[in-house]
Amino acid sequence: MDENRARWDKTLDALEALYKDVERRSFSLPTFSLSPLVIGAWNLIKFEVCFFLDVFLFLPMNAIIFVRNIFPGRWGYRSFSGSYWKYAINWLWRGEAPAFPLGVIRPLVTFMGIVHVYSRFRTVERGIYLDDTLSEEDRTDLNKKVAAALDHWRRPTMVQVVYSYVLPAAGSLIGVYKILFPAGLPQWVGGVGLLLLGYAITFVVSAFMFKRLLMLGASGRALYFLVQSQGIKVTAKKQIS
Predict the structure, then answer these.
(1) Low-confidence ranges of the chain (pLDDT < 70)
(2) Mapping DSSP to helix (H, G, I), strand (E, B) and coil, where does residue 71 land?
(3) Which of 207, 237, 199 is nearest to 224 (CA)?
(4) If we measure between CA atoms, which residue out of 16, 59, 38 comes closest to residue 145?
(5) What does pTM read for this prediction?
(6) What's 84-135 look like in SS3?
(7) Residue 222: which residues within 8 A CB-CB, separation 6 or more?
(8) For residues 46-60, b (16+ Cβ closer than 10 Å) or e, as one string?
(9) 197 and 171 in contact (C-beta within 8 Å)?
(10) 216, 236 contact by CB (below 8 A)
(11) Could you tell me how many helices (H) and strands (E) the chain has, helices first?
């Protein structure tokens, strides 16, 4: 087996091991839950209370600490809302969306994960086809491994595509149409559009965030708040982009 064939085998084995691990950790998600919304709302309330305390107490409290530190010994400066600001800044610094998940539908997260994995293995398949240094025998063996992976992570069905992409997009299209042609649709269609738009924001966007956090190695409660969960440290794994 030459070096190039060994490189392709190593890539396929690494991808398969990574995505199997992602699928196992996806089982830690509930089938349906609004827990992220409850946790996020509770953290937001705590942040607002802490920020309110900082508005009135931050300067006098730290002024006392400053005077205390003139003498031997040292006290750390304090902020009630400092930890929340640090988590938010870290979250944005990582390139995450300025939001938190609101709800979870595990089949929707699984669907997005399958789409991601399927496209990656298709990319590898094209790379194998375009690699002229491989022999026909090596190319055939590698394609069998890709086919086995694609058989497990099958292409999404039309129903899944409609449920995950067409319906969320319909809400925005209805809203734009009503702006351009206010008399062109019955009144009840506007309510349907708002429901579909709410579904897209609440579950579809949240599912995308859950999928991303799964790819970064999170599981359990850390899937709700990767940075904000204290004591959780997640190491991103390398993968083909």
Answers:
(1) 1, 158-160, 162-194, 225-241
(2) coil
(3) 207
(4) 16
(5) 0.74
(6) HHHHHHHHHHCCCCCCCCCCEEHHHHHHHHHHHHHHHHHHHHHHHHHCCCCC
(7) 213, 229, 232, 234
(8) ebeebeeebeeebee
(9) yes
(10) yes
(11) 9, 2
Closest CA to 233 of 30, 105, 90, 19: 90
Token representation of residue 134: 């491989």
Taking the CA of residue 156 as centre, how many other CA atoms within 13 Å lie in the half-sphere pointing to its CB?
A: 21
Q: What is the pLDDT of residues 64-118, one digit of tens each?
A: 999 989 888 888 999 999 988 888 888 788 777 777 788 888 888 888 899 899 9
Q: What is the spatial distance between Cα 171 and Cα 161, in angstroms, rounded to a whole number?
A: 15
Q: What is the DSSP letter of 223?
A: G
User: With contact defined as beta carbons under 8 Å apart, do 200 and 8 qualify?
Assistant: no
Dist CA 193 CA 173 (whole Å): 8
Integer Cα distance of 5 and 195 in angstroms: 51
**Could you give the CA distance from residue 32 to residue 154 in angstroms, rounded to a whole number?**
23
Distance CA 34, CA 31 (A): 11
Residue in this structure with the two tokens 């599912």, named with its chain if needed: 207
Question: How many CA atoms are closer than 13 Å to the CA of 121, on its beta-carbon side?
Answer: 28
Query: Long-range contacts of range 142-145, CB-CB < 8 Å, 24 or more positions apart?
Result: 142/5, 142/8, 142/9, 142/12, 145/9, 145/12
Alpha helix stretches (DSSP H) within 131-166: 136-152, 158-161
Backbone angles phi, psi at 156, to 5 degrees: -60, 145
- Triad 122, 124, 128: Cα angle to 5°: 115
Q: Which residues, including other chains, have CB under 8 Å from residue 89's CB and lie 6 or more apart?
A: none
Nearest to 105 by CA among 47, 32, 171: 32
